[in-house]
């Protein structure tokens, strides 16, 4: 499985772009962009080369880690999947393209599209020295218009995009992305109740259109979680010095919360349960909240069931496991 840290090639490319620039200026820009997001704004606030770099330094490590965790979950369920073509919708600085290239050595053809000129320019700059990504095609267009003209791809990814669209646009885009998906569509959103709600709406729409869920759900039925609960996962990632400086923090790691769904054209053969929270391990038992084909269950694996208990002790939030009784 792929590690959550940025590939060395990408880190080097980002650090190279940071050389000779003021880190405090990058930190101020990143803080402003982050405030814009918190106040309900979007990435239209990113207009210059310096903004794009500040955004990438502050956010790419975490979005990359979340996309990688989602791709790892997909690969675990579908180890035979070897996509050759990728379509990265709302690609921004190219985060999902880097993550997919790391996860799938089979990928040889990369197409990206995004409406933000500054983020596109940065992505192409970062790809420049990469042997696999240097020839990626990157359309500077609105996603809906660009998708209408795009070739279908084996793997289509939209990461942290849907939050930036209105409701009607979300549904239209979901349909268009599915129409361009030859095999698998992966959508990743922030791990908030609103992010999960967007994933659920897209999931329901595309299941009705014939999609099957590969991950995280072990079924294609209705989500059994009821508000205030919501399905999300967390990925820990290391922070580099530049990352800490641009974010103005001292902790050398962070935890990114994310929600995702991977949808496939063909039904998925393996359908294990999914761990929905960090299991509680005691000397008596392991207690784990699992999503199963029959709904959410709280599985209790007693210590006396030695082999099962030993296996359950290794479960982590987000893992796929065979169903427990
Ligand atoms: C939060 S960024 C995420 C970028 C990237 N996918 C990632 O995971 O790092 C959202 C991206 O969606 C793009 N976007 C939003 N609405 C769009 C639209 N209608 N057409 C094309 N791109 C759009 C923005 O320009 C921005 O680059």
The tally of strands reads 13
Provide the list of bound ligands, each named once: S-adenosylmethionine
Shape: globular
Low-confidence residue ranges: none
- Helix percent reads 25-40%
Supply the number of helical segments.
10
Strand content: 15-25%
Tell me the Rg in angstroms.
Answer: 20 Å
Largest sheet: 8 strands, mixed
User: How far apart lie the N and C ends?
Assistant: 28 Å
Judged by helices, strands and strand pairing, the structural class is: alpha/beta
Roughly what is the average pLDDT, rounded to an integer? 94
Series of H and E elements: HHHEHEHEHEHEHEEHEEEEEHE
Layout of helices and strands, plus pairs?
Layout: H1 8-18, H2 23-38, H3 49-77, E1 85-89, H4 95-103, E2 109-114, H5 117-127, E3 137-140, H6 143-148, E4 153-159, H7 167-179, E5 181-190, H8 193-208, E6 212-215, E7 233-238, H9 241-247, E8 253-264, E9 273-275, E10 280-281, E11 285-292, E12 295-302, H10 306-312, E13 320-321
Parallel strand pairs: 1-2, 1-4, 2-3, 4-5
Antiparallel strand pairs: 5-8, 6-8, 7-8, 9-11, 9-13, 10-11, 11-12
Helix pairs in contact: 2-3, 2-9, 3-4, 3-5, 3-9, 7-8
Bound molecules: S-adenosylmethionine (SAM).
S-adenosylmethionine (SAM) is lined by residues 43, 63, 90-93, 95-96, 114-116, 119, 142-143, 159-161, 164-165.
Defining key terms:
alpha/beta; single chain; eight-stranded mixed sheet; binds S-adenosylmethionine; 325 residues; 10 helices; 38% helix; five-stranded antiparallel sheet
């Amino acid at each position: 499985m792929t590690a959550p840290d940025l590939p060395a090639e990408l880190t080097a490319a980002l650090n190279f772009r940071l050389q000779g620039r003021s880190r405090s200026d990058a930190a101020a820009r990143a803080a402003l962009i982050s405030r814009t997001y918190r106040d309900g704004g979007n990435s239209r606030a990113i207009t210059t080369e310096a903004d794009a770099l500040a955004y990438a330094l502050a956010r790419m490590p975490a979005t990359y880690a979340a996309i990688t965790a989602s791709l790892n979950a997909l690969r675990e369920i579908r180890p035979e999947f070897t996509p050759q073509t990728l379509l990265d919708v709302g690609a921004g600085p190219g985060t999902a393209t880097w993550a997919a290239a790391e996860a799938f050595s089979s990928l040889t053809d990369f197409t990206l599209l995004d409406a933000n000129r500054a983020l596109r320019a940065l992505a192409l700059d970062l790809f420049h020295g990469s042997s696999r990504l240097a020839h990626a095609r990157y359309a500077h267009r609105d996603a809906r218009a660009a998708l209408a003209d795009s070739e279908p791809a084996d793997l289509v990814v939209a990461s942290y995009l849907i939050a930036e669209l209105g409701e009607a646009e979300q549904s239209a885009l979901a349909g268009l992305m599915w129409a361009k998906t030859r095999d698998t569509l992966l959508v990743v959103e922030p791990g908030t109740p609103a992010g999960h709600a967007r994933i659920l709406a897209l999931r329901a729409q595309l299941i009705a259109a014939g999609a099957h869920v590969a991950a995280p759900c072990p079924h294609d039925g209705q989500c059994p979680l009821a508000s205030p609960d919501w399905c999300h996962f967390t990925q820990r990632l290391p922070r580099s010095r530049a990352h800490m400086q641009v974010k103005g923090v001292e902790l050398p790691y962070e935890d990114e919360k994310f929600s995702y769904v991977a949808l496939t054209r063909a039904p998925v053969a393996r359908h294990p349960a999914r761990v929905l929270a960090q299991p509680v391990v005691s000397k008596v038992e392991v207690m784990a909240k699992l999503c199963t084909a029959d709904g959410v269950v709280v599985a209790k694996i007693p210590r006396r069931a030695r082999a099962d208990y030993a296996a359950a002790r290794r479960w982590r939030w987000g893992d796929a496991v065979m169903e427990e009784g």
